[in-house]
Amino acid sequence: MTNTTHSTLIGYILWIFGFMGAHRFYYGKPITGTIWFFTLGLLGIGWLVDLFLIPSMDRQADRRYKSGRVDYNIAWILLTFLGYFGVHRFYMGKWVTGLIWFFTGGLFFCGYLFDFWTLNEQISDVNGVG
């Protein structure tokens, strides 16, 4: 049985915005995601190369993270579009920090960025993987 935590389709959709590192954050690569963000995907070259690397990054993420109660894809969509309001934190059952994010705009944007760096690990913790 294959463990599928991340979606190749979502990876390619995020790749469209890959010059900002979105797909790399999604696949659990926050350092290179940050580099892509500040260099516009290594001046577009790394962004184009990633077109061919997404299937490999998807397989690595599927091996690294375990599925459970919280779905990675739903949490990432909620973070990306509603992260300032803490909706992804409510979804994971983190009500206190969800309320803090809601009333402070993602903890004044810093918490929102923190979640881009750590969301996969947060989901693994909630799913009992550690």
Bin the helical content. Answer: over 70%
The largest β sheet comes out as: none
N to C succession of SSEs: HHHHHHHH
Strand content: under 5%
Q: What's the mean pLDDT score?
A: 92
Spans of 5+ residues with little confidence (pLDDT < 50)? none
The backbone outline, from C-alpha atoms, is globular
**DSSP summary, beta strand count:** 0
Oligomer: single chain
Taking Cα atoms only, what radius of gyration do you get, to the nearest Å?
14 Å
Judged by helices, strands and strand pairing, the structural class is: mainly alpha
> How many helical stretches?
8
Distance between the termini: 21 Å
Features:
single chain, 130 residues, mainly alpha, 8 helices
In a few lines, what is going on in this structure?
With 130 residues, the chain is mostly helical. The chain has eight helices and no strands.
What does this structure look like?
There is one protein chain. The longest helix is centred in the middle third of the chain and has 20 residues, at 45-64. The protein is mainly α. The chain has helices at 8-15, 22-26, 30-43, 45-64, 72-82, 87-92, 95-108, 110-126. The radius of gyration is 14 Å and the shape is globular.
Task: Give the SSE map.
Elements: H1 8-15, H2 22-26, H3 30-43, H4 45-64, H5 72-82, H6 87-92, H7 95-108, H8 110-126
